[in-house]
């Protein structure tokens, strides 16, 4: 495979520093079978009336044969169903009908009946419409009084909230209802004003901003006759990082006995723990609907490949492989573990890609919200591109046509792996996933959640020597520090000792970030080193020359926003680490200068290691 790569792209990426060419283990799973071949003859397209940019291997597994025309919904809603659904479906259907997706079919009547729902369906199978449509239809049957909020949709991330608002706007376009969005990082004054001057029948919000407004405006009054509440990405919203905020929000809502309302929880992943918590939010007679068969694997038939290499030096070859396969339609997402790591990787790819890789986009919580939204929008529209991203886009985001998802480094959990991977192979299309792990991280693939997934080693690759990447020194220091912060949660699980943890960090600095000073590692402030429990260890550089007179690191000019957004959006660690992050977020205002990127390190006694099981260290 590498030979092939070398022939096609003789100048391989400079992403991985002065690295010694090294063979590493890898594997690949067959790509998603060409699903056209699996279609029954009568479903095959009658004529080749088909646009080249549309994925030929679209399959209908997640779409039912129920036509929207026959669904028990109002004509106003029917007329609003996006036209492209018809175009998408008609290639397989002689009747040129618009068909519902299977999760909508499974839940529509229950949703219309008003019963509480807990719903699980794979990523990219149309859950958004499945929760919006019944809620809107119930609204149509019982029109709200002006000024009241009737449907509240909560989303864990701002980009997802915007996306839901857009879909809701499409669906209500023939109804008199209006949709408002409340997200952090944007002007709260403007949002207050809009709440007072515009209808807000459907309110889509992120929890933090919603709670702010509940405390400072008469929004709680407007929620007095609420008819439905939806928690999208419910397992994320119900986990420990959001729990307090969510509880406070629910305290502002009217008593269910006086004002009955429907509660709907949706996600692609619902652990046993989450199912237990849901009882607090749902009525005892709630219905659990899942489109996953009992023993079905919760990913699509993507090619799932795992690469074990030393850090991210394979990234460019893997991305180029996708370009070779998809040409101008190659659209990839690269997930990184921290905001600064994302920034560094984007820069490295930009430098590496000239002329051989699609344009690079970058998104993480250290960018201003407006910039984040603009980048997300641009990448949605792009036919081809590489979005280097932290976990802010891991859940729910629907970027059409993503052909490849690469995960560099450890996802925070098996669930997060599934959500990230779910950015490709959406709406029945095919896609491929690759995870690149350093040898000491490969034990992650042996955890029970991950073992169940069909991840194959990638074919072995040989890498040539490549030049040292050139990164801004400040960005190198920030990314190094963020790496230490993120990996601090794994010290007991995957590193043999704190010393090994430091050694791996220094290797990352040299091999990935291109840190050129062989005599010493990137500098850390003594406070940072102490918090991480590595002060005084070999290879830790707390030399004062690197710091301002106050002893803290100087900040980077690369990212416009120094303010970290709420509760660690960049990575979504589970269990104890999230507990730590919440605690740490409270400290942020008083301790802004101590900067780990957005992955902030746990305090040593912070009770942050919940998953005590060992991943078995290096392979
Ligand atoms: N009936 C349909 N016909 C064709 N396309 C559809 C249909 N329903 C939904 N889609 C499309 O499928 C894509 C995925 O939908 P959506 O984002 O709602 O998935 P999801 O299940 O919420 O994903 P995730 O688990 O990642 O949040 C969207 O582009 C949506 O427009």
Helices and strands in order:
Blueprint (H helix, E strand, L loop, with lengths): L1 H7 L54 E5 L7 H6 L2 H8 L8 E3 H12 L3 E4 L6 H15 L9 E4 L3 H14 L7 E4 L5 H10 L4 E4 L1 H10 L2 H4 L5 E5 L1 H4 L2 H13 L9 E6 L4 H7 L8 E4 L12 E6 L6 H12 L4 E5 L3 H15 L6 E4 L5 H13 L3 E5 L14 E5 L5 H8 L10 E6 L10 H4 L4 E2 L15 H15 L3 H4 L3 H14 L14 H7 L43 H13 L31
The chain binds adenosine-5'-triphosphate.
Adenosine-5'-triphosphate binds next to helix 3, strand 2 and helix 5.
Describe it for me?
The strands form three sheets. Strands 5-6-4-7-8-3-9 form a seven-stranded parallel β-sheet, with helices on both faces. It has a seven-stranded parallel β-sheet with strand order 12-13-11-14-15-10-16, sandwiched between helices. 35% of the residues lie in helices and 12% in strands. It is globular. The chain contains 22 helices and 16 strands. The relative contact order is 0.13. The site of adenosine-5'-triphosphate has 21 residues, from helix 3, strand 2 and helix 5.
Brief digest:
Keywords: ATP-binding, Helicase, Hydrolase, Nucleotide-binding, RNA-binding. The chain has 619 residues and is an alpha/beta fold.
Distinct ligands, ions and cofactors found in the model = adenosine-5'-triphosphate
How helix-rich are the residues, as a percent range? 25-40%
List the strand order in the largest sheet. 5-6-4-7-8-3-9
C-alpha geometry: globular
DSSP, total strands:
16
Stretches where pLDDT is under 50 for at least 5 consecutive residues are 1-60, 88-96, 546-568, 572-619
Q: What is the count of helical runs?
A: 22
Largest sheet descriptor: 7 strands, parallel
Mean pLDDT, nearest integer? 75
Q: What is the alpha-carbon Rg in Å?
A: 24 Å
Terminal residue distance: 23 Å
Pairing-aware structural class of the strands and helices?
Answer: alpha/beta
What amount of the residues lies in strands?
5-15%
């Amino acid at each position: 495979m590498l030979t092939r790569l070398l022939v096609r792209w003789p100048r391989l990426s400079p992403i991985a520093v002065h690295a010694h060419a090294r063979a590493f283990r890898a594997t690949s799973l067959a790509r998603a079978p060409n699903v056209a071949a699996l279609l029954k003859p009568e479903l095959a397209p009658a004529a080749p009336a088909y646009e080249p940019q549309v994925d030929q291997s679209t399959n209908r597994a997640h779409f039912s044969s129920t036509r929207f025309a026959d669904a028990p919904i109002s004509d106003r809603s029917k007329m609003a169903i996006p036209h492209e659904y018809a175009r998408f479906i008609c290639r397989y259907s002689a009747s040129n009908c618009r068909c519902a997706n299977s999760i909508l079919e499974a839940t529509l009547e229950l949703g219309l009946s008003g019963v509480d729902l807990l719903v699980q369906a794979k990523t990219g199978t149309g859950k958004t419409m499945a929760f919006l449509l019944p809620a809107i239809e119930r609204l149509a049957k019982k029109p709200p009084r002006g000024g009241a909020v009737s449907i509240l949709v909560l989303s864990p991330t701002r980009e997802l909230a915007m996306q839901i608002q857009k879909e809701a706007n499409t669906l209500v376009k023939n109804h008199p209802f209006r949709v408002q969005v409340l997200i952090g990082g944007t002007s709260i004054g403007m949002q207050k004003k809009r709440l007072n001057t515009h209808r807000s029948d459907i309110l889509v919000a992120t929890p933090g901003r919603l709670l702010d407004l509940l405390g400072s405006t008469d929004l709680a009054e407007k929620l007095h006759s609420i008819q439905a509440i939806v928690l999208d990405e419910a397992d994320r919203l119900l986990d420990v990082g959001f729990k307090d905020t969510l509880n406070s929000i629910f305290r502002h809502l009217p008593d269910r006995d006086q004002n009955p309302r429907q509660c709907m929880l949706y996600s692609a992943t619902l652990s046993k723990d989450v199912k237990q918590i849901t009882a607090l939010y749902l009525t005892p007679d709630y219905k659990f609907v899942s489109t996953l068969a009992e023993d079905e694997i919760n990913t699509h038939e993507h090619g799932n490949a795992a690469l074990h290499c030393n850090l991210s030096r394979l990234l460019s070859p893997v991305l180029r492989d996708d370009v070779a396969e998809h040409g101008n339609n190659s659209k990839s997402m690269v997930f990184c573990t921290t905001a600064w790591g994302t920034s560094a990787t984007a820069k490295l790819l930009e430098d590496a890609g000239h002329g051989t890789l699609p344009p690079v986009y970058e998104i993480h919580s250290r960018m201003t919200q407006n910039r984040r939204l603009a980048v997300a929008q641009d990448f949605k529209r792009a036919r081809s591109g590489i979005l280097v991203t932290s976990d802010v886009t891991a859940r729910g985001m629907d970027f059409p046509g993503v052909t490849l998802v690469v995960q560099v480094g450890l996802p925070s959990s098996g669930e997060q792996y599934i959500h990230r991977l779910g950015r490709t192979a959406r709406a029945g299309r095919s896609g491929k996933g690759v995870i690149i792990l350093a040898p000491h991280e490969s034990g992650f693939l042996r955890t029970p959640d991950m073992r169940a997934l069909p991840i194959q080693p990638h074919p072995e690759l040989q890498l040539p020597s490549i030049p040292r990447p050139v990164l801004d020194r400040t960005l190198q220091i920030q990314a190094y520090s963020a790496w230490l912060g993120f990996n601090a949660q794994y010290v007991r699980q995957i590193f043999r000792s704190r010393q090994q943890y430091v050694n791996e960090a220094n290797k990352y600095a040299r091999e990935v970030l291109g840190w050129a000073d062989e005599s010493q590692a990137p500098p850390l402030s003594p406070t940072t080193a102490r918090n991480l429990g590595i002060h005084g260890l070999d290879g830790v550089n707390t030399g004062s020359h690197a710091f301002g007179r106050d002893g803290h690191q100087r900040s980077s000019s690369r990212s416009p926003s120094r303010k970290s957004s709420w509760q660690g959006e960049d990575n979504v660690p589970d269990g104890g680490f999230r507990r730590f992050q919440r605690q740490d977020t409270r400290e942020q205002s008083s301790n802004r200068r101590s900067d780990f990127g957005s992955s902030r390190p746990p305090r040593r006694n912070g009770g942050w290691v919940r998953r005590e099981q060992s991943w078995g260290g290096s392979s």
